[in-house]
Specification:
The complex is a heterodimer of chains A (105) and B (512). Chain A is mostly helical and 105 residues long. Helices cover 71% and strands 0% of the residues of chain A. Chain A has one domain: Helix Hairpins. The relative contact order of chain A is 0.12. Chain B has 512 residues and is mostly helical. Chain B has 21 helices and two strands. Chain B has a two-stranded antiparallel ribbon with strand order 1-2. In chain B, α6 packs antiparallel against α11 and α13 packs antiparallel against α14. Classes of the chains: A mainly alpha (105), B mainly alpha (512). At the A-B interface, α2, α3 and α4 of A face α6, α7 and α21 of B.
Chain lengths: 105, 512
């Protein structure tokens, strides 16, 4: 939909790559550890958006037996795995930051 | 049958973790742990006869299922993994038994994580599907990061955090590269990707980005930042697994790329990175006086040797060097780690193997093996790598070999002087270290049963260089520190910058 609204210039893929670049900017400039974890999360969102967009087919529907033009479900399924890994890792990273602060004080 | 090689350790990891909820004795827990460590052996041995084998999990067709394989490319990786895990498992029982008395994170949390690491690594090594490879590599790395953070050493948490951030960053870039390949070919199965590959700039860009992120995970200079601290601060059995096995998984990924995708356009860039890594690792190792950090910097250097095989497009050389490094580096970490635990320090000047003849022999044998002296396994790999080099690269290669020997002469010289009085290491620790030392000799004789007079010259040169450097007082200098202790946040900023820079440099290769 984004593609048709913007005349094909802005797609899910380009938005994803932009998010990755924003996250990289955060990771390269912020010294606060929590902000770094957030920056990593922005990168991950960008990658997920880029990857999910790969399965998009113009006018496609949900891939059920009855539909004729279908979107590719595989990228979305794969990104589900990545998201799960992400959640676990973010919580671990935040716990680790707490322990680093405890050690420092 | 092959999926069981992954399923059994994962299942026993779950069972071992579940045992924590019940009030079972440590004997049951240890038994389950060792069962988990050894469980892939029968599956592996049963399948080896029929090599190369490939199975689609769940009996699907190749285009819709996940393929697992056992073939010439991963045979030595899996063999090395199983040998090292079996011996480190034994060692860990002895090591943690002693450490439990002195407190720290309870062993009952550590053993399931080691099994999870085992399953994750094996899963990555058997998979022939890019996304599956990524997921298992993630399981393996996350469990190793948690294991690093469990260490009672000062600064272990920071090392774990640094490891985690760089690992995540490179993982996302790797997934991004997989996405490009999927968009261009429509498959994730490597065999099908090769069948459907149409060469284009996008595919090359994907290979370049994926290689850059694999280099981070393999700890190659200049993307090695996380490695020395993480490997040095972890508990010794964990260090042995990290340095011996975990860094080989991304290297296996690089070999998969070399087999199935075009890599020729990157060969020159990788060659430069490989040599840089070899020499940087040696330079930093020579200046270290922390024994485990010295070994960790040698991992940076030795992974450069493995990458040299990849850069020279010689798959065999890379596979055998990785196998050899798995054996001798984990052995060295076990030996030095046993000394460090019994002396309660990692400082080289306070450690000594004088009172411990078995560890002494083992460390000397392993040092010869890593130095590439015939008839140890290092020599076989060295001559294989030399076969694919030309011109001045050969001289650089010999120079790196002498550098490695100098560093290990220093290690053995320091360890052979009388140190602090210490308790004796446990029997399991000694047995596991000695077994790995003997295996480097056995495999060396099996592959390459020859003696070379050149090795004698190399050793003599190395001794001369060592004496000269000692005379010049090089060893008492401190290794250069990049950051003060309070600049921790800025470290990550810099490392991200370097990673982006390397990505850009690799991408520039496309236009030559």
């Amino acid at each position: 939909m984004l593609e048709s609204l913007t005349g094909g210039y802005i797609t899910g893929g380009t938005v994803g790559i932009t998010l990755v670049l924003i996250g990289l900017y955060g990771l390269m400039t912020k010294t606060d550890l929590v902000k770094q974890v957030i920056a990593i999360n922005v990168i991950s969102t960008g990658v997920v958006l880029y990857f999910t967009n790969l399965g998009y087919v113009e006018g496609g529907e949900a891939p059920l037996i009855s539909s004729t033009v279908m979107v590719d479900p595989l990228p979305a399924t794969l990104m589900l795995t990545t998201l799960v890994i992400d959640v676990a890792i973010t919580s671990f990273a935040l716990a680790l930051i707490m322990r680093i602060e405890e050690d420092a004080s | 049958m092959i999926p069981f090689i992954v399923a059994l350790p994962l299942l026993l990891a779950l069972l071992t973790a579940l045992m924590n909820a019940f009030d079972v004795g440590s004997r049951v827990r240890r038994l389950l742990f060792m069962a988990g460590v050894l469980s892939p052996w029968p599956v592996f041995l049963l399948n080896v006869e029929y090599m190369p084998v490939s199975t689609i999990v769940g009996g699907w067709q190749r285009i819709s299922g996940i393929e697992v394989v056992l073939n010439d490319y991963n045979y030595y990786f899996i063999l090395g993994e199983l040998i090292v895990f079996s011996l480190v498992g034994l060692y860990a029982l002895g090591y943690y038994n002693e450490r439990e008395k002195s407190g720290g994170v309870a062993v009952k949390y550590i053993l399931p994580l080691i099994l999870l690491l085992h399953g994750g690594i094996l899963g990555a090594l058997v998979s022939s599907d890019l996304f599956n490879f990524y997921v298992y590599m993630e399981i393996a790395s996350l469990s190793s990061i948690i294991l690093v953070s469990c260490s009672p050493e000062r600064g272990a948490k920071r090392a774990a955090y640094r490891y985690l951030m760089l690992y995540l960053l490179s993982s996302f870039f790797f997934v991004f590269a997989i996405g490009i390949l999927y968009a261009k070919t429509g498959y994730l199965n490597l065999y099908l990707i090769r069948e459907n590959l149409v060469m284009s700039v996008e595919v090359q860009a994907a290979v370049a980005i994926a290689m850059a992120s694999l280099l981070v995970k393999a700890g190659i200079f200049p993307l090695h930042f996380w490695l020395p601290e993480a490997h040095a601060k972890a508990d010794s059995p964990v260090s042995a697994l990290l340095s011996g096995v975990v860094v080989k998984v991304p290297m296996y990924g690089a070999i998969l790329f070399l087999v199935y995708l075009p890599m020729e356009f990157m060969a020159d860039a990788l060659l430069v990175v490989a040599f840089a890594s070899m020499f940087f690792g040696i330079y930093m190792a020579v200046l270290q006086d922390n024994a485990k950090k010295l070994l960790a910097y040698h991992t940076v250097s030795q992974m450069g040797f493995v990458l040299l095989g990849v850069a020279a497009l010689d798959i065999d050389a890379a596979i055998f060097y990785a196998f050899a490094h798995t054996l001798f580096k984990s052995g060295l970490f076990l030996g030095v780690g046993a000394l460090a635990r019994s002396h309660h320090t990692q400082h080289l000047s306070e450690l000594s193997y004088r009172d411990n003849k078995i560890l002494m022999v083992a460390v000397i044998l392993l040092s010869l093996a890593i130095g590439g002296i015939a008839p140890f396994i290092g020599a076989f790999c060295k001559y294989q790598l030399l076969g694919c080099l030309t011109g001045f690269q050969i001289y650089l290669f010999y120079l790196a070999g002498v550098g490695t020997l100098v560093s290990f002469i220093k290690l053995n010289y320091k360890l052979s002087r009388p140190g602090k009085k210490a308790a004796a290491p446990s029997r399991l620790e000694k047995v596991a270290t000695m077994a790995l030392a003997l295996l480097t000799l056995v495999f060396g004789v099996y592959f390459y049963p020859r003696l070379k007079y050149l090795d004698g010259i190399l050793i003599l040169t190395a001794v001369a260089v060592f004496v000269a450097l000692r005379y010049l007082d090089v060893f008492s200098r401190d290794a250069p520190l990049l950051f003060p202790a309070d600049g921790f946040g800025r470290e990550i900023n810099l490392y991200t910058g370097v990673f982006v820079l390397i990505n850009v440099l690799f991408l520039v290769q496309l236009f030559y």
